[in-house]
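From the methods appendix. Each design record in this collection lists the tokenized structure first, followed by the designed amino acid sequence. Records were kept in a plain field format so they could be parsed without special tools. The example shown here is representative of the layout used throughout.

RECORD:
FOLD TOKENS (362 positions):
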């Protein structure tokens, strides 16, 4: 199977556009045109995972954590990336895109806890995609200018084109010495009936549309505004917050261990009593503690947390449950495997057995 087919499926499961802006996601090593014989899933791409993938005949590794994160200046022998390049192994990382995705990392962790009525703990800020262009033009030129803007790519709303709003008003100007106004004369205050024309401009076309505006507008110095539009909420985000049927903390600890296949948990704060609201954040999500507190959660399940954040949580009466970092993420690999296996003709998929959290409780 050509890798490009799997890349499309992966982006449909966890759209890369939803990843955090600081992250490094997607295809990190490889050629979309290469043929793939076997797939291995892991949290980290380590020497042990690389050897396991080689033994299993897997030439495509989906490593949740990106093995290339900071910019690198050299790729030398002894580095796992060098070895992957030499052997033609492709590496893909979904990381925070999978955290945000429906049925992704955070939803898997929320299911382990039994969260109901869940929603993102911290909403992802959508990227702005449009400006609103407001331009003022004499009445007898408005049709021509409007069509010029539409031809240049302005005025699209969904499946509708040539969209604009037009309202009449009065424009004033005083032409200084050396000007040649299209209406009136220099040296006196002019009042001109004008139309306020508003339309939408895609960010990627703003330069060409403004050039078209200047070329088509009758004035020497056309007056216009470009207002960056706030994007609509996506409903996506990091972490999850939700409700629980009256749940006993001790019962929840046992459930978490069973669902995530763990023998131990790190717990701070109250360990007894019932709760009705909880939050989850896969990985290292101590930075979302203020969101947890503001949301009124009584328990927070995450991978790891700094000492001072744990102290702050306990002071707020919150039970913090830490699984160790990658133990909060690994359960999603089973779900990802099942979804990839739905692709017709997909090669064999396995989950790494050598991939594990570097920490153990002795």
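DESIGN:
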């Amino acid at each position: 199977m050509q890798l490009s087919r799997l890349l499309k499926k992966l982006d449909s499961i966890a759209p890369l556009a939803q990843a955090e802006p600081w992250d490094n996601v997607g295809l990190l090593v490889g050629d979309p045109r290469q043929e793939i014989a076997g797939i291995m899933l892991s949290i980290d791409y380590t020497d042990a995972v690389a050897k396991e993938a080689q033994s299993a005949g897997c030439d495509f590794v989906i490593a949740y954590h990106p093995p290339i994160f900071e910019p690198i200046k050299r790729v030398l022998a002894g580095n796992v990336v060098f070895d992957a390049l030499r052997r033609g192994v492709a590496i893909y990382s979904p990381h925070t895109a999978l955290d945000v995705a429906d049925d992704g990392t955070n939803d898997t962790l929320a299911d382990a806890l039994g969260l109901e009525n869940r929603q993102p703990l911290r909403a992802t800020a959508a990227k702005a995609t449009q400006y609103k262009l407001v331009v003022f033009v004499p009445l007898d030129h408005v049709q021509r200018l409007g069509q010029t803007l539409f031809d240049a790519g302005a005025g699209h709303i969904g499946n509708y084109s040539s969209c604009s709003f037009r309202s009449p008003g009065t424009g004033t100007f005083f032409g200084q010495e050396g000007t040649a106004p299209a209406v009136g004369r220099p040296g006196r205050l002019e009042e001109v009936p004008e139309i306020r024309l508003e339309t939408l401009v895609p960010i990627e076309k703003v330069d060409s549309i403004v050039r078209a505006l200047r070329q088509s507008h009758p004035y020497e110095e056309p007056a216009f505004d470009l207002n960056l539009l706030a994007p609509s909420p996506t409903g996506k985000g990091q972490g999850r917050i939700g409700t629980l049927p009256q749940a006993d903390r001790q019962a929840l600890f046992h459930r978490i261990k069973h669902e995530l296949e763990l023998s131990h948990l790190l717990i701070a704060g109250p360990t007894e009593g019932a709760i009705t609201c909880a939050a989850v954040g896969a990985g290292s999500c101590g930075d979302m503690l203020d969101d947890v507190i503001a949301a009124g959660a009584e328990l927070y399940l995450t991978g790891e947390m700094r000492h001072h954040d744990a102290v702050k949580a306990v002071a707020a009466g919150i039970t913090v449950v830490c699984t160790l970092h990658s133990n909060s993420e690994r359960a999603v690999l089973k779900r990802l495997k099942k979804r990839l296996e739905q692709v017709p003709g997909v090669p064999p998929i396995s989950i790494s057995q050598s991939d594990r959290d570097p920490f153990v409780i002795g």
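APPENDIX NOTE: The longest helix spans residues 249-260.
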